Amino acid sequence: MMIDAAADKQSDDDPSHPRLFYFCGVVGIAGCIAVVLANIVGVLVQPKDGLIEDTISDLAAGRYAVIMDIGLYAFAIGILAASSGLRRLHWGNWSWTLGSWLLALMAVMIVVIGAYGEYGDNDVGGLVIHLPLVLAMAVTFTATALLTAAGFYRYRPRWFWFNIACAVIWVVGAAIFWFSPTTIDGLIERLVGGVMVVWLLAVSKLLIDRSKGKATRLPVFGAADKS
């Protein structure tokens, strides 16, 4: 039992695969920066589109749609990188594994949304898949935050509550967006999307810290007694 406890502690203290964690963290942060910049630049080059009234979909379907598409692709790559980092970190059981894989699925859905380019904007032809994918993405992010929350608890309890808060704010914000007037739905959508950006930034920073050996989980309570 002493050996098992020592091995567990060594596993937690060892910043396994530091280069991978650092790479995933940097890519995740870059993805967050890219999607925010794409929103700002997209509005600047399309004066008719604003941050308050017009949604991200409006930017992604306009004349300069490529700007928002690039931002979405970069964000998806950042999410995929975070997913890879979390799977390698593996601070949990099956729920952690499932949550990290769902994160990868969300990245795929974002890419499909940007690549397919059909937003239900009355274009002739084309299967409108935007709304179903957005709803699926909302459920997926909520599930990811909740499924990984318990694993984060052993790192820092506040990380558990951070995940819970992100999930709750995301769900409440999505409900408000659904029933909001079109005059402010762009602002609400960006605030809700900001929850995901903040979450990814935090996770990416954690992966970078892990690569430097700073972010290690707390030992299991009572492990010394059991040994």
Automatic annotation (TrEMBL):
<dbReference type="Pfam" id="PF06197">
    <property type="entry name" value="DUF998"/>
</dbReference>
<keyword id="KW-0812">Transmembrane</keyword>
<protein>
    <submittedName>
        <fullName>DUF998 domain-containing protein</fullName>
    </submittedName>
</protein>
<keyword id="KW-1133">Transmembrane helix</keyword>
<feature type="transmembrane region" description="Helical">
    <location>
        <begin position="98"/>
        <end position="117"/>
    </location>
</feature>
<feature type="transmembrane region" description="Helical">
    <location>
        <begin position="191"/>
        <end position="208"/>
    </location>
</feature>
<feature type="transmembrane region" description="Helical">
    <location>
        <begin position="129"/>
        <end position="153"/>
    </location>
</feature>
<keyword id="KW-0472">Membrane</keyword>
<feature type="transmembrane region" description="Helical">
    <location>
        <begin position="20"/>
        <end position="44"/>
    </location>
</feature>
<feature type="transmembrane region" description="Helical">
    <location>
        <begin position="160"/>
        <end position="179"/>
    </location>
</feature>
<dbReference type="InterPro" id="IPR009339">
    <property type="entry name" value="DUF998"/>
</dbReference>
<feature type="transmembrane region" description="Helical">
    <location>
        <begin position="64"/>
        <end position="86"/>
    </location>
</feature>
